[in-house]
Design goal:
One of its GO terms (cellular component) is plasma membrane. It is a multi-pass membrane protein. By secondary structure, the chain is of the alpha+beta class. The protein has 28 helices and ten strands. Among the domains are: 151 residues, no CATH class; 90 residues, Alpha-Beta Plaits (2-Layer Sandwich), CATH 3.30.70.1450. The chain has a five-stranded antiparallel β-sheet, covered by helices on one side. The protein has a five-stranded antiparallel β-sheet with strand order 8-7-9-6-10, sandwiched between helices.
C-alpha cells in the first residue's frame, strides 16, 4: 500500500476520534487539518494553495452568503408572526401543534438555512407548549428532525447540500441544480412527518413536566436556599460583595429581602442587617458551614420562580440556550467575564443530561447548553437581541423590521430563481443577495459578520482540503476498491444502501459535513468503478448525512434542542431509530426510481 494512503487512513481515524471526544472545539480541529496536510505533504501531496482552498471554495462562500440572507429574512419578523398564528390555529391540541411545527419548520428550512430556523422556533415552541400546559420535550426533537429533512428539499436548505454539490462538481464537472432533489426531499419530509405524528411522539418522553417549577427542573432545591441573619451574626455591618469574596467556598448571594422589599444585584453598597433574608446558591455541605460559622438560620420559605422575580426591579428567572456558533462555545463564563458584563446571576448549567450547580465559571461551554439566570429587564433585552443566545423561557420580542418582509422575501426569491434558471451560479446569486440586503437596508452593514456562523465556515474551510488529500493520494479510490470486494454478492441497489448506511454511521458520530467530506469521494469512485450513475451515489451520501437522527452530535440542530428539551442521549436514539431504518430502505429505492443506477 502507498505510504500516502496509509498516512491518510490513520489521519482519518485520528480525526474521527477527535471529533467524537472533542477535546477542543471542532472548528479548531478542522482548522488544524490544512496545516498538518502541508507539513506532511511528502505523503499527502497537498500544496499550500490547495490547503487554503477551503476558504475560497464556492461552497464556503455560498454558505456564508446564505447565512446573511437568512438573517435578513429573520430580521423581518415573519417567522415570529407565523409563531403567533400557529398558537391560534392549534388551540389545545398537541397533535395540531406538532403538525404545524413540522409543516412550517420543514418548509421554511428548504429556503433559509435550517440552523437559524431551529434557533427561531425553539422559544416559540417552548412558549406555546407552556401556555397549553404541554411538555416542550414532546416537540423539540420533532422540530429538529423536521428542519433536517426540510433542508433536503433544495440546494440551499443546508450547508451539507452545497458542500456535496461542490465536491460533485469538482469530480464530474456538474453539481446539483437548485431543485435537483426537491421531490425526493418532500417525500422524505412527508414520511418523517407521518412517523413523528403517529409513532415518534408516543416514543418521546415528557422530560419537562409542564406543571413543574423551573427551579425544580434544574434541581435547585438542594442549592438555592433562603437564609436569615441572626442578631449575633458576624456578617452584620459587612457588605454583600465583601461577604461573597471572603468566603473560602463557592457561594453566590442571589437576592436580599429586607422588610418586605427585595433587592438584586448590583448589591455593592448594601450592608447586612439583623433579620435580613439572603437567597444564596451553594451546595448542602457548604450551606451547613455557612449557617454554623456565620450564625444564620434557614427560612421555612423555599425559593421559587415567583419569589425570585422582582417586579419593582424587573428581575426575572430566565433560561438561555447557547446556539451552534455562539462565541461562548469552547470558553468558560470566567474567561469572558459573563456575569460582570451582563449583570446577572447564574444558578445552574444543563449540559445534555448533566446539571451543574457548583464552580460554574470554570465549565467549558458547548452548543446546546442551557443556563438558568436571574437577570434584570435590560439584561434580558440584551440577551434577546444577541445572536449568541436564545432566550428559551419566553417568547422573544426582538426588534424586528416588518416593513422589510416583502423586500427580504423578494431578495431570497431572486437568489433562488437566478440560480435555478442557470442565469448565474448559486455562489454569484447569493453574493448578489447579500449586496441587495444591505442596499435595501434590510440588514445593516454591521450585522453582516454577526449573521455568519463562523464555526461552520471554519469547519468547511478546514475539511475541504482533506477531500483533496484523499483524491491526490488515491485514498478514496483505495477505499472504494475495498467496498467493491462485495461486488459479486451485492446488487447495484444494495451498494447504494451500503453507502447510505456507512454515511449515516459516520454522520451520527462525527457530524453531517465531515461525513460528506469522508464518504462522497469514496462513493463517487465506487460508482465509477462499477459503471453506475455517480449522481445517484452522491444523492445517497447527501441525504444520509443530513438524516442522521440517532445522536445529538450528528447535527447542529439536534445539539440546539438537547438542553432545552432536557433530553437524555437515549431519547435521540430510540426516537430516531425507526425513522432511520425506514429511510435506509426508502431513500435508495426512491433514488433508483427517480434517477436510475
Amino acid at each position: 500500500m502507498d505510504p500516502g494512503i496509509i498516512f491518510i487512513i490513520f489521519f482519518l481515524i485520528f480525526l474521527i476520534v477527535m471529533f467524537i471526544i472533542e477535546p477542543i472545539r471542532i472548528d479548531i480541529i478542522a482548522l488544524s487539518i490544512p496545516v498538518i496536510l502541508v507539513l506532511t505533504n511528502f505523503w499527502t501531496e497537498v500544496s499550500p494553495t490547495e490547503a487554503i482552498s477551503g476558504f475560497s471554495s464556492s461552497a464556503t462562500v455560498t454558505i456564508g452568503s446564505m447565512f446573511i440572507i437568512s438573517a435578513g429574512v429573520e430580521k423581518s419578523g415573519i417567522i415570529q408572526a407565523l409563531g403567533d398564528k400557529i398558537s391560534k390555529w392549534t388551540g389545545d391540541s398537541d397533535f395540531k401543534l406538532l403538525f404545524f411545527i413540522i409543516l412550517f419548520a420543514g418548509l421554511i428550512a428548504g429556503v433559509i438555512n435550517n440552523t437559524p430556523v431551529v434557533a427561531l422556533f425553539i422559544p416559540l415552541v417552548i412558549g406555546i407548549a407552556r401556555r397549553k400546559n404541554s411538555s416542550p420535550s414532546k416537540f423539540l426533537i420533532p422540530l429538529s428532525y423536521a428542519a433536517m429533512m426540510g433542508g433536503l428539499t433544495t440546494l440551499i436548505g443546508t450547508s451539507t447540500n452545497i458542500l456535496a454539490s461542490d465536491i460533485l462538481a469538482r469530480r464530474t464537472g456538474e453539481g446539483f441544480s437548485m431543485f435537483e432533489f426537491t421531490h425526493l426531499g418532500l417525500l422524505v419530509l412527508f414520511i418523517g412527518a407521518i412517523y413523528m405524528l403517529f409513532l415518534g411522539r408516543k416514543i418521546l418522553p415528557d422530560r419537562i413536566k409542564p406543571e413543574v417549577e423551573v427551579t425544580e427542573q434544574f434541581k435547585m432545591g438542594e442549592y438555592l436556599t433562603e437564609t436569615i441573619i441572626r442578631k449575633d451574626s458576624p456578617l452584620i455591618g459587612k457588605t454583600l460583595e465583601e461577604t461573597e469574596q471572603r468566603m473560602d467556598f463557592d457561594l453566590n448571594i442571589i437576592q436580599l429581602n429586607r422588610s418586605g422589599e427585595k433587592f438584586l444585584k448590583p448589591l455593592t453598597n448594601k450592608t447586612i442587617q439583623e433579620g435580613d433574608h439572603l437567597i444564596v446558591r451553594t451546595d448542602p455541605k457548604n450551606l451547613v458551614k455557612l449557617i454554623r460559622t456565620h450564625r444564620m438560620k434557614i427560612s421555612s420559605e423555599t425559593p421559587t420562580r415567583e419569589s425570585l422575580n422582582v417586579k419593582k426591579e424587573s428581575q426575572s428567572l430566565v433560561e438561555i440556550v447557547l446556539p451552534y456558533g455562539s462565541f461562548l462555545e469552547g470558553q468558560t463564563l470566567e474567561e469572558v467575564n459573563f456575569l460582570e458584563n451582563y449583570e446577572c446571576d447564574i444558578l445552574a448549567i444543563r449540559q445534555g443530561e448533566e446539571l451543574t450547580h457548583k464552580r460554574m465559571g470554570d465549565i467549558t461551554l458547548k452548543a446546546g447548553n442551557v443556563l438558568l439566570l436571574t437577570a434584570g429587564e435590560k439584561t434580558i433585552e440584551r440577551l434577546k437581541k444577541d445572536r449568541n443566545f436564545i432566550v428559551s423561557s419566553e417568547l422573544i420580542s426582538k426588534e424586528y423590521r416588518p416593513s422589510k418582509v416583502i423586500t427580504s422575501l423578494a431578495i431570497l426569491a431572486g437568489v433562488v430563481l437566478l440560480a435555478a434558471l442557470n442565469i448565474v451560479p448559486i455562489v454569484i446569486s447569493s453574493l448578489g443577495g447579500v449586496i441587495a440586503m444591505v442596499v435595501t437596508n434590510t440588514l445593516k452593514p454591521v450585522e453582516l459578520s454577526e449573521a455568519i456562523n463562523w464555526n461552520v465556515i471554519f469547519l468547511l474551510a478546514g475539511l475541504i482540503p482533506l477531500g483533496i488529500a484523499m483524491d491526490n493520494t488515491g485514498t478514496a479510490e483505495f477505499m472504494a476498491r475495498q467496498v467493491l470486494r462485495l461486488e459479486g454478492m451485492l446488487s447495484p441497489l444494495m451498494f447504494l444502501m451500503v453507502f447510505y448506511f456507512l454515511t449515516v454511521i459516520f454522520a451520527n458520530l462525527i457530524g453531517n459535513n465531515a461525513s460528506v467530506i469522508l464518504m462522497l469521494p469514496i462513493a463517487l469512485d465506487a460508482a465509477g468503478q462499477l459503471g453506475l450513475n455517480p449522481l445517484a451515489f452522491a444523492l445517497a451520501v447527501t441525504f444520509a448525512a443530513s438524516s442522521a437522527f440517532l445522536t445529538p452530535m450528528s447535527y447542529q440542530t439536534n445539539m440546539m434542542v438537547y438542553g432545552p428539551g432536557n433530553y437524555k442521549f437515549q431519547d435521540f436514539f430510540w426516537t430516531g431509530l425507526p425513522l432511520q431504518l425506514i429511510l435506509l430502505f426508502v431513500v435508495p429505492l426512491l433514488i433508483n426510481l427517480f434517477w436510475g443506477l
